[in-house]
Amino acid sequence: MENRDKLKKIENNLNDFIKKIPELISVRENIWNTFLEMIKTYESGGKILVCGNGGSAADADHIIGELMKGFMLKRELKEKDSLPWINSALSDSILGELQYGLPAINLCAHNALNTAFANDVNPELIFAQQVFSLGNKEDLFLGISTSGNSKNVYYGGVVGKSKGMTCVALTGENGGCMKKHFDITINVPSNITPVVQEYHLPIYHELCKWVEEYFFSI
């Protein structure tokens, strides 16, 4: 299937998604633009850096799990991507299990680094430090904050923008300071934390599903 046909199909999927959760019509365009930026990131050889606090940190981990392995598709390796340095006796079994991944990193997951930096330097800059070290202009920063005001997430995005990265915020309705300074904000229609989180999950599930479909569907 040609890429333009895939985009048309995925946009139809977006319309179906909005029909199921019509209160998200206000963020339809920003959801679509986030998907397009994710595609651009991966086509440019970039990666996605994700972070959040508490439940949003768990969401960040969830997103990584959907991107780095097969989600709705198997993503089996092609013959041209075989691993010639692996012992031939192991090659078939290993190649039969490995899958293509979409590079993504959860900045919340580096406990030793984060606690060391928080203790020795500044806890509000734990994600900013990682973005400074890992981020490139081809990458995308996805910051998750139900209020949009989490300082450590916000500062991570500020550093990301200074490095030329596209910065996306997934927030509650107000959007906070992240809405003012990030490139795209998906600010769902509630400011009640658990309700915001219940909106976030289906949004990032769909985004991960669409990106996978774009790159790996036949």
From TrEMBL:
Coiled-coil residues? none
InterPro entries hit by this protein: GmhA/DiaA, SIS_dom, SIS_dom_sf, SIS_GmhA/DiaA_subfam
Which regions span the lipid bilayer?
none
Q: Name the PANTHER family for this protein.
A: SEDOHEPTULOSE 7-PHOSPHATE ISOMERASE / DNAA INITIATOR-ASSOCIATING FACTOR FOR REPLICATION INITIATION
Give GO BP annotations, semicolon-separated. carbohydrate derivative metabolic process
Q: What is this protein called?
A: Phosphoheptose isomerase
Keyword line: Isomerase
> Would the keyword Isomerase turn up in this protein's UniProt record?
yes
Write down the superkingdom of origin. Bacteria
Q: SIS domain: which residues? A: 38-218
> Mind listing the GO molecular function terms for this protein?
carbohydrate derivative binding; isomerase activity
CDD domains named in the record: SIS_GmhA (cd05006)
